[in-house]
Specification:
This protein is mainly alpha-helical. It is 64% helix and 9% strand. Helix 2 (22-34) crosses helix 4 (54-66) and helix 3 (39-46) crosses helix 4 (54-66). The longest helix is centred in the C-terminal third of the chain and has 17 residues, at 87-103.
């Protein structure tokens, strides 16, 4: 394991990931796609101030930084924000909690739930099986 990867893993272990609000998740999805960025670029990606006022987004970003999801640095008058937690790590943590809390820690029960509620078609199920089989090789 590289030193950077090891340090990032250690950092993630020490940061207790808090579940993000829908607004925070929306901002993080943009930051994950843009990489290091500034508030105006995030706002532009959101659709401008008609979607979210600048001050609301700035507060959201500061909350994300306080929660340990972002780091920041200043260049002149502009603050740049960079994700500390990867999208993959976030999804892994909260999907695991979701499966644990709602499906007795059984991914099989979760898939069965979606099949029974007709949210997963036989074709999609076959695709999932194919993905699993490819991963085992």
């Amino acid at each position: 394991m590289t030193q950077l990867r090891k340090n990032r893993s250690i950092a993630i272990e020490f940061v207790k990931m808090e579940k993000l609000s829908p607004q925070e998740e929306q901002a993080m999805k943009i930051i994950w796609s843009l990489g290091e960025t500034h508030i105006r670029a995030i706002l532009d990606d959101l659709g401008g101030e008609d979607e979210m006022p600048y001050t609301t987004l700035a507060s959201t970003i500061k909350n994300l930084e306080r929660k340990g999801y972002l780091s920041s640095r200043k260049i002149g008058n502009v603050s740049l924000f960079k994700p500390i937690i990867t999208e993959k790590d976030y999804k892994k943590t909260f999907m695991h909690g979701f499966v644990k809390d709602y499906f007795d820690n059984s991914y099989k029960q979760m898939v069965n739930f979606f099949v029974e509620n007709e949210k997963l078609s036989p074709k999609e199920l076959k695709e999932i099986i194919s993905i699993i089989e490819k991963g085992k090789k």
